[in-house]
Amino acid sequence: MSQAYEFLKECGSFFVLTINGDYPAGRPFGAVMKIGEDLYLSTNDMNQAHKQMREHLLQKQGLRST
After folding, report:
1. Pairing of strands 32-35, 38-41
2. CATH code matching the domain that covers 2-60, chosen among 3.40.50.2300, 2.30.110.10, 3.60.21.10, 3.40.50.300
C-alpha cells in the first residue's frame, strides 16, 4: 500500500471513477492520507461521488441489490 500512497501523493491530483446511473463518471481528487496500511480519500458526504462510492461498497458487502 505504501507504493500506492507515494504514487498518489506524487501525482498531486488523480481521478476516481464511479458509475452515475448507467454512465461512468471521473472525478478529480487530491486529498489522500495513509493510516497504518489503509488509504483514505477525502470527499464531502453530500456529493454524488461519495453517494456512489458508498452504494458500491454496500453492494459489494451484499447489503444492497444491483
Report:
1. antiparallel
2. 2.30.110.10
